[in-house]
Design a protein that fits this description.
single chain; 3 strands; elongated
Amino acid sequence: MFDDDDDADEQLVRPYTITSGRTSPERADLTLITLVTTVPEDTTRATPAVPRMQPEHRTILALCPDSKAVVEVSAELGLPVALTKILIGDLVDAGRMWARSPRPVTRRGEVSDMAILEAVRDGLRKL
């Protein structure tokens, strides 16, 4: 009976300890669909170490040799998105990962999704 309560408390405390007490991401540019990629090792030798490096940081680096969305990384880690954003932010700040917003894919001569959204926005403003 007491073991179940201890497990629940541990689940609440562990994310707090992973991030050294931080509860919200410091970077506003990390969204659910932001793509993150591990910087190749030969590039990172001159970069500073990640402060408070946790096993989860190393797991994220191993998961992302190719671009993945923040939400995918979160799902693979089994951690809340907010916590994953904090960890990824640490790695981006230390120069160990790259982060970029996804690019719209269009074929030659087609109008991009962003152009359509801007046209809709402008039309709504005229109403």
